[in-house]
Amino acid sequence: MNSLKSIYHSRLGANFFCFKLKYNHLETSSTCCHYSDTKQPSKEKPPHVPVMKHEVIENAGLNNQSIFLDMTFGAGGHTKSILDKYPGSIVYCLDRDPVAHRMACDLETVYPGRVVPLLGKFSELPALLKSHGTRQNYFDAVLFDFGCSSMQFDEGGRGFSLSKDGPLDMRMDGNRLPQNPTAADVLATADEHDLYKILKVYGEEKRAKKIARAVVEARYLFTPLQTTKELADLISCVLVNETRSDKLDRHAHVATKTFQALRIFVNNELNEINYGVLLAQRYLKIGGRLITICFHSLEDLIVKRHITGNMSDNSINVLPLQYVDNSRWHDEESIKEFTSSNWEPLHKHVLLPSDYEVERNPRSRSAKMRAAVRIS
């Protein structure tokens, strides 16, 4: 596929994983439609348990007249809490997943006039807000809850889960954007070096080279990988003598980081996060609050560098500020540009979920929350 080659070039070239990628202009075109390509999650249990819900409300600084932007609506757990706590508030609900968008539309009937469902990625937000007559400096708080939702992991047909067999899809947009490659497309067409870079950088997988070679050999000796079970079994065979554990010291599958890497690459998540935080600055009022919940270091690194002002040309710098070359001379104007930030953090360190929350919801174990105020 020629289109896949251009995607590899844009995401795996010298400007790798968004550190040097310039964001697009704010008037990106998009449309908001209803789709029904994926089954809705079961109603027998909550499709997603919101992480650090009380901390989000506490740090958002909202009131009954607030206008809130939930950039990752999911199943609406955070949004419902805000709507209930502040009866006069209005929430704009963005999500790229058609299933989540339908849930936001359902929520709109429960809270008439207070919920605005938006279907699209972070990069589609400007056009979506423009269609609603929304201007910049409009919102009182913006929330990002990055990563996959439980309802995506729990639906085997979406291809995110290691525990449920299904097609290697992993597109958060589902079939809303059918031209976008699936994880199976990536595994079937990427060369060994590109696969190695995807797994090493996006998954921080220490055995990336070994896994990439095995995928390519399986592709030519047998057949391209098509299901999550086929990929998980292949990696289990390649890393047969390895054992891994998660942050709760529970057994972790050796393919976990590979699945994470493919998901991030397929959905272009890091570039979307970088652009999303830039948009948050544009659409927040001065004094408005930015709340982010990250689940791995790559997401948190982008947010942290935005908040600390370690930016260059609208992208985060590769090196932290302490490793900047101090032997070079800079004029006062340049120094101010290097060290200035549009944000004032509310806390010195990240906030973590309580032990009680982790016990009730183990998927919150990796969460890190940051909160900041827009000051310029």
From TrEMBL:
Q: Which HAMAP family match?
A: 16SrRNA_methyltr_H (MF_01007)
Q: Which family does it belong to?
A: Belongs to the methyltransferase superfamily. RsmH family.
Coiled-coil ranges (or none) = none
User: Mind listing the UniProt keywords for this protein, alphabetically?
Assistant: Methyltransferase, S-adenosyl-L-methionine, Transferase
**UniProt-recorded name of the protein:** S-adenosyl-L-methionine-dependent methyltransferase
A GO BP term here is: rRNA base methylation
This protein's source sits in the domain of life called: Eukaryota
| Region forming the signal peptide | none
* GO function term, MF aspect, one: rRNA (cytosine-N4-)-methyltransferase activity
